[in-house]
């Protein structure tokens, strides 16, 4: 472990007020109950209607609130800003009763007008998590009944509506309007928070740390004893492991199987290895460059060494198509590419590069060892069909920026998709609907047929019919070969034993929620 990283991690644990190289004594920091989380991912944006990714989800769920929350395993939807709700018999109208105690950090109450403003802004911007309700609600859907009652009328049925609500954040309408500018408040919210969460952002140092402090007298009751938290950027997973092992961090979020093995029986460390709906695939640039050629994509899909990927991952199983095992509609018998060099060369001969002889590029998150290993598996696989690979580590915000247009995207873009709700729509829409183009979840892939199937699936409420739709969806995506379908890794977290109140939830499990947690 690099000495500089050790000092940074120790400084993070010590810091509560003004952070400095020396920091406070660790004992003082512990007395002030500051949770330290080691992650290799920066927060790309503070805007709750734009930012996505696990670091953004962790940030937003601690400084903002939504109508409902998710918790537990199995997952259940529980009250948040809404203390109760009712649903019409046809499932098309939801009525939420807001908690009269709910208030923003400036002390003003959270009202039905704030809910409407937030949902309307989300739909207007059509960014961030807007995909979750695209075509389901519009700017006429949210109707304030009185200050603490709000109705939501769906445009079309959506079986997973309650499950997506935890990720639709409510902002302080008056604060955003006062700072609206010419871009609907995007400039302001990029670096400011207008939320009601139990924590506020105290310091942001991209590439280094994000420091949170607990709000005085938060409106939510109960919770743990934390006075603050620090999201610390530690790029190398081995350094994250050592930080937890030495007591310099309380959580490590990006560990490899080898890291978890090394932590077994280490005093003061609790290892969490749990299944969840979390896919890993290597997306190919279907719109620009050599991989716009479907025959070349299929050649690569059959040349890829799936066994080596499986062995390098640990705590995993190979994906069978685009959906995770166990989710509604997944087809475990779906025919998918497996290593077959003869078939790879057959497709290569049909491509515009029949003899190979080209060089492609793959990016991966800097310091994320597992992605680097997968890139090396791809490198070795491509050599067998006379294709070279340039592997480029990048920090996450730069990777996100590179997906803005096909010409900026690398040939290969690795993506972990962690479900925010346990429904096939989550992965299907986020990762394969064309409206997501220009976003890290689906940079470039588009298909009118797949779009239509996805929209049918999210509107259909009959479970048998939904399954049939998603079976066809999976077949069509595999036939288009937009991804190398990789592995379903179990979530791997390392936690110090002096942390209490943490309950594993198999959706967004690495977007740690601070409020329930305590330190001894």
TrEMBL record:
Primary subcellular site in the record, as a coarse category: periplasm
Keywords of the record: Signal
Family: Belongs to the bacterial solute-binding protein 5 family.
CDD domains: PBP2_NikA_DppA_OppA_like_7
The keyword Signal appears for this protein: yes
Subcellular location as annotated: Periplasm
Protein name per the record: ABC transporter substrate-binding protein
Solute-binding protein family domain segment(s): 76-438
Signal peptide feature range: 1-29
Lineage: Bacteria, Pseudomonadati, Pseudomonadota, Alphaproteobacteria, Hyphomicrobiales
């Amino acid at each position: 472990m690099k000495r500089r990283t050790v000092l940074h991690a120790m400084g993070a644990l010590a810091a509560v007020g003004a952070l400095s190289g020396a920091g406070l004594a660790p004992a003082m920091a512990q007395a002030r109950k500051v949770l330290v989380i080691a992650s290799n991912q920066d927060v790309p944006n503070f805007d709750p209607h734009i930012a996505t990714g696990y670091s953004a989800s962790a940030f937003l769920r601690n400084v903002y609130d939504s109508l409902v929350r998710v918790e537990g395993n199995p997952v259940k939807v529980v009250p948040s800003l809404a203390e109760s709700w009712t649903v019409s018999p046809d499932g098309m109208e939801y009525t939420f009763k807001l908690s009269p105690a709910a208030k923003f950090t400036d002390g003003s109450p959270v009202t039905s007008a704030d809910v409407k403003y937030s949902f309307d802004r989300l739909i207007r911007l059509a960014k961030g998590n807007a995909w979750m309700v695209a075509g389901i609600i519009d700017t006429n859907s949210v109707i304030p009944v009185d200050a603490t009652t709000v109705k939501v009328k769906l445009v079309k049925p959506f079986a997973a509506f309650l499950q997506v609500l935890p990720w639709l954040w409510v902002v302080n309408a008056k604060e955003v309007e006062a700072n609206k500018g010419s871009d609907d408040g995007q400039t302001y919210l990029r670096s400011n928070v207008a939320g009601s969460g139990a924590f506020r952002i105290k310091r942001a140092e991209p590439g280094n740390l994000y420091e949170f402090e607990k709000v005085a007298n938060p409106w939510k009751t109960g919770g743990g004893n934390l006075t603050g938290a620090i999201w610390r950027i530690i790029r190398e997973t081995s350094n994250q492991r050592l930080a937890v092992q030495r007591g310099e961090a309380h959580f490590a979020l990006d560990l490899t199987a080898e890291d978890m093995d090394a932590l077994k029986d280490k005093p003061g460390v609790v290892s969490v290895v749990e299944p969840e709906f979390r896919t890993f695939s290597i997306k190919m640039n279907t719109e620009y460059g050599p991989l716009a050629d479907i025959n070349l994509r299929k050649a690569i899909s059959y040349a890829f060494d799936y066994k080596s990927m499986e062995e390098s991952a640990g705590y995993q199983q190979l994906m069978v198509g685009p959906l995770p095992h166990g989710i509604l509609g997944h087809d475990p018998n779906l025919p998918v590419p497996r290593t077959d060099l003869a078939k790879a060369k057959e497709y290569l001969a049909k491509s515009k590069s029949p003899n190979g002889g080209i060089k492609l590029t793959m990016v991966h998150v800097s310091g994320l060892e597992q992605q680097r290993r997968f890139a090396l598996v791809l490198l070795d696989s491509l050599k067998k069909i006379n294709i070279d690979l340039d592997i480029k580590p990048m920090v996450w915000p730069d990777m996100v920026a590179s997906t803005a247009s096909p010409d900026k995207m690398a040939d290969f873009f690795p993506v972990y998709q962690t479900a925010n709700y346990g429904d096939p729509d989550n992965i299907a829409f986020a990762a394969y609907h064309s409206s997501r183009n220009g976003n890290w979840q689906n940079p470039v892939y588009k298909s009118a047929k797949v779009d239509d199937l996805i929209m049918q699936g999210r509107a259909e409420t009959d479970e048998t019919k939904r399954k049939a739709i998603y079976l066809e969806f999976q077949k069509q995506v595999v036939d288009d070969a937009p991804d190398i379908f990789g592995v379903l890794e179990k979530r791997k977290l390392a936690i110090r034993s002096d942390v209490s109140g943490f309950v594993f939830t198999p959706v967004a499990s690495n977007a740690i929620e601070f409020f329930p947690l305590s330190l001894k």
